[in-house]
Amino acid sequence: FTVAGGRQALRALIEADAGRRPTGVICSNDLMAIGAMLEAAAIGLRVPEDISIVGFDGIEAGTWTQPQLTTVEQPIDDIAATAVGALRKLIETPDQAQPNYVFHPKLRPGGTTAAPVSPAQ
Question: What is the pLDDT of residues 93-102, one digit of tens each?
Fold first, then answer.
Protein backbone atom coordinates (compact mmCIF):
# COMPACT_ATOMS: atom_id res chain seq x y z
CA PHE A 1 0.00 0.00 0.00
CA THR A 2 2.95 2.30 -0.71
CA VAL A 3 4.32 4.26 -3.66
CA ALA A 4 6.91 1.49 -4.15
CA GLY A 5 4.14 -1.10 -4.00
CA GLY A 6 2.20 0.73 -6.71
CA ARG A 7 5.25 0.83 -8.94
CA GLN A 8 5.90 -2.87 -8.38
CA ALA A 9 2.26 -3.83 -8.96
CA LEU A 10 2.00 -1.94 -12.25
CA ARG A 11 5.28 -3.40 -13.49
CA ALA A 12 4.09 -6.94 -12.61
CA LEU A 13 0.75 -6.30 -14.34
CA ILE A 14 2.46 -5.09 -17.51
CA GLU A 15 4.97 -7.96 -17.51
CA ALA A 16 2.32 -10.62 -16.77
CA ASP A 17 1.19 -10.56 -20.39
CA ALA A 18 3.67 -8.66 -22.52
CA GLY A 19 1.45 -9.02 -25.57
CA ARG A 20 -1.41 -7.14 -23.94
CA ARG A 21 -1.45 -4.26 -21.52
CA PRO A 22 -4.34 -2.82 -19.54
CA THR A 23 -5.89 0.46 -20.62
CA GLY A 24 -6.58 1.35 -16.99
CA VAL A 25 -5.94 0.36 -13.39
CA ILE A 26 -7.77 1.06 -10.14
CA CYS A 27 -5.39 1.11 -7.19
CA SER A 28 -6.09 0.16 -3.58
CA ASN A 29 -5.10 3.61 -2.38
CA ASP A 30 -3.73 6.91 -3.64
CA LEU A 31 -0.12 6.17 -2.71
CA MET A 32 -0.17 3.09 -4.90
CA ALA A 33 -1.77 5.12 -7.71
CA ILE A 34 1.02 7.68 -7.46
CA GLY A 35 3.53 4.83 -7.66
CA ALA A 36 1.72 3.42 -10.69
CA MET A 37 1.92 6.84 -12.34
CA LEU A 38 5.68 6.96 -11.70
CA GLU A 39 6.17 3.45 -13.06
CA ALA A 40 4.05 4.17 -16.12
CA ALA A 41 6.31 7.14 -16.91
CA ALA A 42 9.44 5.05 -16.27
CA ILE A 43 8.37 2.43 -18.83
CA GLY A 44 7.25 4.97 -21.40
CA LEU A 45 3.48 4.96 -20.88
CA ARG A 46 1.64 8.29 -20.87
CA VAL A 47 -1.10 8.90 -18.30
CA PRO A 48 -3.95 9.08 -19.34
CA GLU A 49 -3.24 8.69 -23.08
CA ASP A 50 -1.84 5.15 -22.80
CA ILE A 51 -3.16 4.05 -19.41
CA SER A 52 -5.74 5.49 -17.00
CA ILE A 53 -5.00 5.35 -13.27
CA VAL A 54 -7.48 5.78 -10.41
CA GLY A 55 -6.66 5.91 -6.71
CA PHE A 56 -8.76 5.40 -3.62
CA ASP A 57 -8.68 7.64 -0.54
CA GLY A 58 -8.63 11.25 -1.66
CA ILE A 59 -5.39 12.27 0.07
CA GLU A 60 -3.98 15.72 -0.61
CA ALA A 61 -0.87 14.31 -2.32
CA GLY A 62 -3.09 13.29 -5.24
CA THR A 63 -3.54 16.96 -6.07
CA TRP A 64 0.24 17.41 -6.32
CA THR A 65 0.73 14.97 -9.19
CA GLN A 66 0.85 15.98 -12.82
CA PRO A 67 -1.77 15.37 -14.02
CA GLN A 68 -3.83 15.46 -10.83
CA LEU A 69 -4.91 12.01 -9.68
CA THR A 70 -8.45 10.83 -10.27
CA THR A 71 -9.51 9.23 -6.99
CA VAL A 72 -12.43 7.85 -5.05
CA GLU A 73 -12.55 10.16 -2.05
CA GLN A 74 -13.55 8.64 1.27
CA PRO A 75 -15.39 10.77 3.84
CA ILE A 76 -12.57 10.36 6.38
CA ASP A 77 -13.91 12.95 8.85
CA ASP A 78 -17.33 11.26 8.92
CA ILE A 79 -15.77 7.81 9.29
CA ALA A 80 -13.56 8.98 12.17
CA ALA A 81 -16.39 10.77 14.01
CA THR A 82 -18.67 7.75 13.60
CA ALA A 83 -15.96 5.37 14.85
CA VAL A 84 -15.33 7.50 17.95
CA GLY A 85 -19.06 7.72 18.66
CA ALA A 86 -19.52 3.97 18.21
CA LEU A 87 -16.59 3.25 20.54
CA ARG A 88 -18.04 5.53 23.21
CA LYS A 89 -21.43 3.80 22.94
CA LEU A 90 -19.76 0.40 23.12
CA ILE A 91 -17.88 1.41 26.28
CA GLU A 92 -21.02 2.87 27.89
CA THR A 93 -23.36 0.03 26.91
CA PRO A 94 -21.26 -3.01 25.94
CA ASP A 95 -24.26 -5.35 25.62
CA GLN A 96 -26.17 -3.12 23.20
CA ALA A 97 -25.96 -4.07 19.53
CA GLN A 98 -24.21 -1.57 17.31
CA PRO A 99 -25.90 -0.35 14.13
CA ASN A 100 -24.40 -0.79 10.68
CA TYR A 101 -22.93 2.34 9.16
CA VAL A 102 -22.87 3.27 5.49
CA PHE A 103 -20.52 5.87 4.06
CA HIS A 104 -20.73 7.38 0.60
CA PRO A 105 -17.43 7.97 -1.16
CA LYS A 106 -17.37 10.26 -4.18
CA LEU A 107 -15.38 10.33 -7.36
CA ARG A 108 -12.95 13.24 -7.54
CA PRO A 109 -12.03 13.51 -11.22
CA GLY A 110 -8.48 14.48 -12.04
CA GLY A 111 -6.50 14.19 -15.20
CA THR A 112 -5.38 10.57 -14.95
CA THR A 113 -8.33 8.98 -16.74
CA ALA A 114 -9.51 9.00 -20.33
CA ALA A 115 -11.36 6.74 -22.72
CA PRO A 116 -9.00 4.22 -24.34
CA VAL A 117 -7.88 5.35 -27.80
CA SER A 118 -7.41 1.84 -29.14
CA PRO A 119 -7.74 -1.72 -27.84
CA ALA A 120 -5.09 -2.85 -25.36
CA GLN A 121 -1.99 -4.16 -27.08
Answer: 999 998 999 9
